[in-house]
Amino acid sequence: MPLTLFGTDWHLSQHAKQFGAIKPLYGAAYNKALNQARLALCFLSKLNNDTYTRRNFEIPAAGTCMVSAYSADLANNLFAPNTEAIYFKTPQELLKVVQTLLGNPQLVEKIAAAGRARLLAGKHEATDRCRQVIAVFRRLRAS
User: Fold this and answer.
1) Are 86 and 97 spatial neighbours (Cβ–Cβ below 8 Å)?
2) Is 95:101 a contact under the CB 8 Å cutoff?
3) Which CATH class is domain 37-142?
């Protein structure tokens, strides 16, 4: 299946040679890549013990179907499994999920739309976070 990888520090991965050149994307180029993708994969850092990452918000914000490594935090608190995002726990499960999704473009569109709607309804956009930080700052300053 066609696969294009973008990101940083992939040269440190044991799998870097099999994927060829992997370049980082920033700004408009990153947004364009997400918007053009049918699916966007999201991996969580085991070194950082991530339960979610900003990509878990950026992918749905772009209106793209997110296929993410599973975490209870994501599945129980942020995006509903199999309706707003797709999760995987093993490489074999990831492969199966991607093959299924690539064969069902209507499902991909439905999940992408639901994920974006959840992102907006949950107030998870960057501007929402800015408002939240400012509100906390004002509360702390007032006390």
Assistant:
1) yes
2) no
3) alpha beta
Exposed/middle/buried for 142, CB within 10 Å: 0-12, 13-18, 19+?
A: exposed
Q: Which residues contact 10 (CB under 8 A, 6 or more apart)?
A: 16, 19, 22
Q: Residue ranges per domain, the chain?
A: 37-142
Give the separation between CA 79 and CA 112, rounded to whole angstroms: 11
Tell me the per-residue pLDDT of 53-77, one tens digit each, with 9 for 90 and over. 999 999 999 999 999 999 999 999 9
Please tell me the predicted confidence (pLDDT) of residue 11. Answer: 58
**SS3 at position 87:** strand
pTM over 0.90: no
Two tokens at 7? 């990101």
Predicted confidence (pLDDT) at residue 120 exceeds the cutoff of 70: yes
What is the C-alpha to C-alpha distance for residues 89 and 36, in angstroms, rounded to an integer? Answer: 25
Which pLDDT value is given to residue 133? 87
